[in-house]
Amino acid sequence: MTAEGWREVAGARSRPWAGTRHAVARGGSGPWWVALGGVVVVVLLLGAGAADQRADFEQAFLPPSAEHPFGTDQAGRDLLARSLAGARVSLLVGLVAALVSSVVGVVVGGLAGSLASRAGGVVDGVLMRVVDAVNALPHLVLGIVIVALLGPSLGSVILSVALTHWTTTARLVRAELLALEGVGFVEAAVGAGAGRWWVLSRHLLAHVMGRVVLATVLMVPHAIMHESALSFLGLGLPDDQASLGTIIEQSRTAVLAGHWWPAVLPGLLLVALSLVVFVLGERLRPVSWGRS
Amino acid sequence: MDDRRRVRLPTRLHPARPPLTGLLVGRLLLLPVLVAVVTLVMFALAQRTPFDPVLATLGERALTMDGPTLEAMRDRASDTGAVQQWAAWWGNALQGDLGVSSSQRSPVSTVIAQRLPWTLGLMSAALVLAVLGGVLVGGLAGTRPGSWADRAVGGGLLATQAAPPFWVGLVAVWVFAVWLGWLPTGGATSPGSGSVEALDVLRHAVLPVLVLALSQLPWFGLVVRDATRDALAGVPVRAGWARGIPTARLLRQHAVRPALLPLVTVLGVRVPELITGAVLVETVFSWPGVASATVDSALRLDFPLLAALTVLTTVLVVLGNLAADVAYRVVDPRVGRRDG
User: Cα dist. A200→A122, A203, B8 in Å?
Assistant: First the structure.
């Protein structure tokens, strides 16, 4: 058979999202959740709540009302607008950090998995010990160290989250690659004369891509939590880029003075945000698993 | 030519487990290597960053110094590379000198000796509560799969997991300390009381321990729920039920042990999560432990303290993993037998 013929067969096998629509449709309430989650994410990213955030100290600490559903903070700013803007920052940081860490994870896991049987597995061994070393520190402590040494900024927060979360993806990709040894379509491709790089990119990585996408989506809530924890500790974003963690941190003195809304309501938004993204990811799970 | 085209992957997915003594020796030998690498990376990072060791060491004294003196000190600091600094730090550390903490204004070893007991007390109390709560809640849900109790527990644990501990802590402070006024807002002892009184400390510890335990509960609860459910659906329980053995006895003999097994084995693995929770909870409640000191040292660029606490954390996590592996072998007789 010609190489062109095999390319067609291989192409049909390696489209990561083949059958996605049907799997989503089979998932019962899946489409609704996915649609709802998608709408929430898009609305937030498009910048809802970019509205009025001016300070007005005569309006400080107004309890929730029709005019200010979340009340106002210590500077008289509308907390709903501020929280929505903060949620946008949290979501953006979470998405970018999850993406970066997935790329790192795929590269490391792909290298380790495909070189596991080469040169006595030295590369694989070294890379997996690096994974162990990164996992040997609690992610938050490692993140604190990174931000402290790099200085707090948007970039160092994203870097700190990304550098501590790639190990899960790396392990996943490596394990998938090892499990694919001797699977029919790989042997067929090898038998047809496909080279190592071809098999790796068109078959192996394409095969794990669905799961990597799922892992990335499920990592977003983790990344959001990590970012908000750093911001809460004062090692996160500056005030003009306030995330939900920053807003909650600033509410600490207000809580001691008996004002509950600056802490409780943005926190509820944070919980809701990570739950929506988490459920979205869980609903995508059958899609990515259905193919194997 | 042919060899280049063949994709060879190992046949064994899981390497055979080494025997227990080999595992212990191997891990304990790896520990110093790991700690050395972690600290070396820290020193290397510190060199490539805006982190200014001269200002960090001098603190306010730097304000009264003239420029040339500062520059000379900087030159001397940057002349010594990361590796030399790292070697010097270890040389001193191995002789018991961890340097002086600028944020706490006392030797690092004193800071750790004073603060470590507070953190260990907080973490162990929370861990015990979380395990007990997890067994209770998870057992309740796992023995009634599909019931309203199961669904309520599942949903509740999921929501708890999504709630960041620092936020739960703040809400707890508002409800119990500010609104109801039952408990203190933070610290470990009442201001003004010079001595440490047991009852006073206990009152201060209630909220931090409960919040930390709550942050660990979902995970234990879900593990116990799933394990209980699987054990009840398994062949031994069904066979026993068919023979007419009472449900209570079946639960005791065939469900509790397989359900608790994963819990024991994952206790040690939870150390990183426990430390993460402790960092947040100690900060919210101004608890005088090492976890809040980690945050302080990072905020004030107190490098000696940050380095020592990072080493301490690494050691704790590695020992936790080791304890998990050992517990796994001791509790589950199948593991040792299979591996020979």
Answer: 19, 6, 12
